[in-house]
Specification:
Layout: H1 2-12, E1 21-23, E2 28-37, E3 40-41, E4 44-45, E5 50-56, E6 65-67
Antiparallel strand pairs: 1-6, 2-5, 3-4
């Protein structure tokens, strides 16, 4: 049920007030995962699952939202 209300807030742009949401600013970042994942980037889906991606961001061009780590 909480996920439903969280999705509703995200659609309305009010999700930043949720305690599960953190925001960060960076010019470059990496995402690592023990479990491989597909990447959807610029309208393209990766051909195979990855364990790591490195991303460079142009200043003031992209906002990224990530879930907090589960406790």
């Amino acid at each position: 049920l909480k996920a439903f209300f969280s999705l509703s807030k995200a659609v309305k742009g009010r999700h930043l007030s949720l305690r599960e949401v953190q925001t960060h600013r960076a010019e470059r970042f990496s995402i690592y995962s023990e479990e491989p994942f597909f990447v959807h980037s610029d309208g393209e889906l990766s051909d195979y699952p990855l364990n790591r991606i490195e991303v460079g961001v142009l200043k003031r061009k992209l906002a990224f939202l990530l879930p907090k780590k589960a406790s």
